[in-house]
Write a structure and sequence with these properties.
elongated; 2 helices; two-stranded antiparallel ribbon; alpha+beta; single chain
């Protein structure tokens, strides 16, 4: 198995040892990888993943944020929904146009709720 984080894409890199004499000798920098069992909410299965320590900390942070959102919205939050793609998972950002459309739909829904009540 290769030494690559499945979430962040961290991999073994090469560099130099630099002692006091500054004589450079080649060495490798290996990522701090762990094999973790993660629940994938899309498939409903537990999968083994090779994750770096940084990726594990990030997933814990996202899980804590997701738990706070679950309490607010009463929905289920997926922690590692895009995990295993081999690239860093970025949070989705909304454009100003999308934000205006979302506000308009919320205002329309509130207006309908006000008329029906």
């Amino acid at each position: 198995m290769s030494r690559v984080c499945q979430l962040t894409g961290k991999r073994t890199t090469a560099g130099n040892n630099r002692p006091f004499s500054l004589k450079a000798t080649k060495r490798t920098f290996r990522p701090n990888l762990f094999v973790k069992k993660m629940f994938n909410p899309e498939t409903g299965r537990v999968e083994k993943m090779k994750l770096s320590a940084k990726a594990i900390r990030t997933l814990k942070k996202w899980a804590a944020e997701g738990a706070a959102k679950v309490e607010d919205t009463k929905t289920t939050a997926g922690v590692a929904h895009n995990a295993g793609e081999g690239k860093h998972v970025k949070k989705e950002k909304m454009t100003p146009k999308q934000k205006k459309e979302l506000e308009a739909t919320k205002a329309a829904a509130a207006k309908e709720a006000g008329e029906s009540a």
